[in-house]
Write a structure and sequence with these properties.
The complex is a heterodimer. In chain A, 36% of the residues lie in helices and 25% in strands. By secondary structure, chain A is an alpha/beta fold. By secondary structure, chain B is mainly alpha-helical. The chains are: A alpha/beta, B mainly alpha. Chains A and B meet through helix 11, helix 12, helix 13, strand 18 and helix 14 of A and helix 1, helix 9 and helix 10 of B.
């Protein structure tokens, strides 16, 4: 029997959490040289709920999240955990106080086992002070049972899928008895089924009283999993609402502070001759018998689940990793595309999927990023770049695409994701492509920039550019495309015309 | 283009002048020089800087390695490293000297090839370096072995070649015109020429822009249409040429060539570049920075000699300075990553 004193303390504690939530943040301010990233921001996360953080890129979500995870220290304001004010000095400190973060780029040691990753620094030891691997596997198994995860504790992490790695991270967080879990775009690399599984785990965690801070750009996820959400705009708090009380348009309006009537403004435009034709493209073990045509002024959407090898087809068309068999015809003439340089000579441009890995030169300035493709083919005399012309063209294109940057000498990693993406599009538009391949053109960028990029793409189609657009967001594919090609595990599963296509039909082909 | 986009065309300002990153390195140079100047008056009772003879010796000492450092700078900017430059100096010194001997010397390496016009040893030397550089570059670009390993192989091979060439015997007695390449301040002028040329190349040519792009993100460079492999071969070829040039100057200046010439030059050259702010992770750095790094190197060595500090201490302190430069670079990167 507990003493009345203890009971009273427990009651007080419960009351505090009732009032304050697991995590309460007030008046947080964070400045970086030249920018106020957060100003008077607040957030309250109640136990057993998923709290979504919404906002355009640059709204301050990531900064706030890093403050909660102990990576940044706020310049002003208060953080209260379980009702008491705390300072979170480092990620480890935050972890030990009950706040864990699941990173967007998963932070695991690839060449170690699942169990080693979870218990690192806290490995169970035998009486000689050496690591007790058997017990470590056993406690890991217990942990997995508790969380309903089916993973092998002694599997090497490098052999896991992205979804499984994420599970490992969640398990690690739970092994610290974390009460608050921060998830930054956790579904960005998952398939539909994996997302469902993740949501099940999240619901289990909720039932266990965990509070989850969930950052996402995907509206349907918000409605599927979140209880409450808070919107930020330009580093300021806009509002907090229950997810069931609002509509998608309400949220978008809160985020951008302006109306977006049509997110996918595909305009009808005349569709011309076949510009690009692929015949039976095959890369053994990757994709097989890919055939399609692409016409002037047409947007061909390419849909498919993760693992459908859509990006590999795009890479083959652009000569990054050429196909082994099959034929590519441009204007009806067979061509051999063995490198990006040859693809560019044929008027092809390729916006890659991962702007950080294969797109931007992050440490170089905007000018260097915009001009790189252009100067491989033009405006160079005797090796010297015609700086004046190139700078003028770059500045014009950046302005036309509304790239937000102090000037062209700004280092690209200081720009937001949306602006980086616009910069990359500017790079390709300067080469005046006839065929534009876009791989996830709006992934991870804010709603405003997204809509601008959509408008830009249909504008280009109207000017006669043939567009092949890969996208994982079905509304985007449906809204933008004249025709949709659906891929399933390296094969063409079918084509859908604009008129007949809908989400169900696409998923039907993609999932089989 | 649809209306909304056209409507909002606003001017993105053209690049404005920002504080050059070389400024902080220049301040370090000024600080070190000032320290030696003060210590000079305190310890030796004379000025360190106001001594033209000391300064010219100092600049002569570093400009040969400086020529190599210019080549290494562009390699490091491209994300690579070159450990073979010192050995290429040795090999080129031997080859060029063997074709530059006077006929009055009875034991010339090639008695039939004495008193040749100066262009012959120069071209032969440069071709040696070019060949070494192309092999380095081709190995790195097409077999994808790390630059560290490829150039380590060349370092050992080229040194071995230099020793084999005359079975370890030094080669001496060059023609006057060959010797002139190393006499007086000629090495300094050669360095200046090389530095100015490379500065222009890195800043204003496609070659330079590709070099930075490859160093910043090789995958993105490839997708942007740059033939990364071919460019890497070019970069190492140019570095090989510059190492060879340094080798010719060293031989001419010493009036003799020995197989061991240029030992440790590769490390000194890398150190100059790193001290000058060239980032070992690629994509960042400049000829101006390396030049300042080179002068810092010279000032430190000459300053220690001036203060009569033992040569052993000099080396230890040199080592510490190099490590300090890399630590600064890493620290800068960290700060940058934290910000983004």
């Amino acid at each position: 029997m507990l003493s009345p004193k203890t009971l009273a303390a427990v009651a007080r504690y419960k009351e505090k959490i009732e009032q304050d939530g697991l995590l309460a943040i007030e008046g947080i301010r964070k400045e970086f040289p030249g920018v106020v990233a957060l100003d008077d921001v607040r957030l309250r996360v109640r136990p057993g709920t998923v709290h979504a953080l919404m906002g355009e890129n640059g709204a301050g979500k990531s900064t706030l999240m890093k403050i909660i995870a102990g990576i940044y220290q706020p310049d002003a304001g208060e953080i209260r955990l379980f009702g008491s004010p705390v300072t979170l000095k480092s990620p480890l400190d935050a972890l030990e106080q009950g706040v864990a973060m699941i990173h967007q780029e998963l932070a695991l040691m690839n060449w170690m086992t699942v169990a080693e990753n979870i218990w690192i620094r806290r490995e169970p030891r035998n009486r000689y002070g050496l690591i007790d691997h058997a017990r470590m596997a056993a406690v890991t198994r217990e942990l997995f049972d508790r969380l309903n995860l089916s993973l092998d504790p002694i599997a090497q992490v490098s052999e896991l899928t992205v979804a499984q790695k994420q599970m490992v991270e969640i398990a690690r967080a739970m092994s610290y008895n974390s009460k608050i879990l921060i998830m930054d775009e956790p579904t960005s690399a998952l398939t539909e089924r994996e997302v469902e599984h993740l949501f099940e785990i999240i619901r289990d965690l909720k039932a266990g009283g965990i509070g989850i801070v969930y950052i996402t750009h995907k509206m349907n996820e918000l409605f599927a999993i979140a209880d409450e959400f808070t919107v930020f705009r330009d580093g300021r708090y806009v509002g907090t609402h229950a997810a069931k009380d609002v509509t998608r348009d309400d949220i978008i309006r809160m985020m951008v502070g302006r109306e977006i009537t049509d997110m996918f403004p595909k305009v009808d435009c005349p569709i011309g001759n076949v510009v690009l034709e692929a015949k039976n493209l095959t890369l053994k073990g990757v994709f097989h018998d890919i055939s399609f045509t692409l016409r002037r002024g047409e947007i061909l959407g390419l849909a498919g689940l993760v693992g459908s090898k859509r990006s590999n087809v795009a890479e083959a068309l652009f000569g990054v990793v050429p196909a082994e068999a099959g034929q590519i015809l441009i204007d009806g003439k067979p061509v051999i595309i063995d490198s990006p340089a040859t693809a560019m000579k044929h008027g092809i441009a390729f916006l890659t999927e991962d702007r950080k890995e294969t797109g931007c030169f992050l440490i170089l300035d905007c000018l260097a990023n915009i001009q790189s493709a252009l100067i491989t083919g033009a405006h160079v005399r005797a090796g010297f770049v015609d700086e004046k012309t190139v700078t003028r063209l770059a500045a014009e294109m950046a302005a036309k695409l509304r790239v937000k940057t102090p000037d062209l000498a700004e280092i690209v990693e200081n720009l937001s994701g949306g602006n980086q993406q616009k910069l990359l599009i500017a790079r390709w538009l300067l080469t005046k492509p006839r065929i534009l391949i876009l791989d996830e053109p709006t992934r991870g960028i804010d709603v405003g920039a997204k809509s601008e990029i959509h408008r830009l793409i249909t504008g280009l189609a109207a000017e006669g550019v043939a567009v092949l657009m890969i996208s994982s967001e079905l509304p985007e594919v449906l809204g933008m495309s004249d025709r949709i090609m659906v891929m399933h595990e390296g094969h063409v599963a079918g084509f859908l015309d604009r008129g007949e296509a809908n989400q169900v039909k696409i998923m039907d082909l993609a999932a089989r | 283009m649809t209306e909304a986009v056209v409507q909002s065309v606003q001017a993105v300002p053209k690049p404005t002048r920002r504080l050059p990153p070389e400024l902080s390195i220049l301040l370090v140079l000024i600080g070190i020089s000032a320290t030696f100047e003060i210590l000079g008056w305190l310890v030796q009772g004379q000025s360190f800087l106001a001594n033209p003879q000391r300064l010219s010796i100092m600049i002569l000492q570093v400009s040969v390695v400086g020529i190599i450092a210019i080549g290494v700078t562009q390699i490091i900017i491209s994300g690579g490293i070159d450990l073979s430059s010192g050995s290429i100096v040795g090999a080129t010194a031997m080859i060029s000297m063997s074709l530059a001997q006077v006929s009055t010397y009875s034991r010339a390496v090639y008695p039939a090839l004495t008193d040749m016009p100066v262009i012959v040893p120069i071209v032969a030397g440069l071709l040696t370096g070019l060949l070494c550089g192309v092999v380095n570059g081709a190995l790195i670009a097409y077999t994808r072995i790390p630059p560290f390993i490829a150039t380590l192989g060349m370092m050992v091979t080229a040194r071995g070649f230099a020793k084999w060439y005359t079975k370890g015997q030094p080669i001496s007695f060059p023609t006057d015109s060959f010797a002139a390449l190393g006499s007086k301040l000629t090495p300094v002028f050669i360095f200046l020429f090389v530095a100015v040329a490379m500065h222009v190349v890195l800043r204003y040519t496609r070659y330079g822009k590709f070099t930075y792009a490859i160093g910043a993100n090789p995958q993105a460079a490839r997708v942007t249409g740059i033939n990364v492999e071919r460019h890497i071969v070019k970069i190492y070829a140019v570095a090989g040429l510059l190492s060879a040039l340094a080798g010719i100057v060293v031989a001419a200046r010493g009036l003799t060539a020995q197989a061991g010439m240029g030992q440790m030059y590769e490390l000194d050259a890398i150190a100059m570049a790193v001290i000058g702010g060239v980032s070992l992770s690629g994509g960042r750095g400049s000829v101006l920075g390396t030049t300042i790094g080179m002068i810092i190197f010279g000032v430190v060595v000459s300053g220690f000699t001036f203060l009569r500090i033992d040569a052993y201490y000099q080396e230890m302190i040199k080592g510490a300075i190099i490590v300090a430069a890399v630590v600064t670079d890493v620290h800068r990167q960290k700060k940058r990553q934290k910000k983004s």
